[in-house]
Amino acid sequence: MDPATGDQEFQQSEFEIFKKDAAGNPIWVETAVGLDQTRKRLIALSGNSTGDYLVFNPRTNTFVDVKQRTKSA
User: Fold this and answer.
1) What is the C-alpha separation between 49 and 64, in angstroms, rounded?
2) 26-33 β-sheet, strand order
3) What is the C-alpha to C-alpha distance for residues 61 and 72, in angstroms, rounded to an integer?
4) Where are the domains of the chain?
5) Which of 34, 50, 54, 56 has the fewest CB atoms inside 10 Å of its own CB, making it the most exposed?
6) Which residues lie closer than 8 Å to 34 by C-beta, 6 or more apart?
7) Is residue 61 scored above 90 in pLDDT?
8) Could you read off the pLDDT of 18-53 as tens digits, one per residue?
């Protein structure tokens, strides 16, 4: 499923938010429900910390591109 399609089921899925550590390993941060809430959490998290965040959809077992860029270090 593609977030750009607006698929309702995808929009309401749970997403796991990870932050990459200095070595590039993903470290779990939190779970968000829904694509909109996930985007809002990424904005809030990136405001408090620089770095790269990843979003994982456990239903599809894939990392998802939610088109959210964070501040660069």
Assistant:
1) 21
2) 26-33, 14-20, 53-57, 62-64
3) 27
4) 3-64
5) 50
6) 11, 12, 13
7) yes
8) 999 999 999 999 999 998 999 999 999 988 888 899
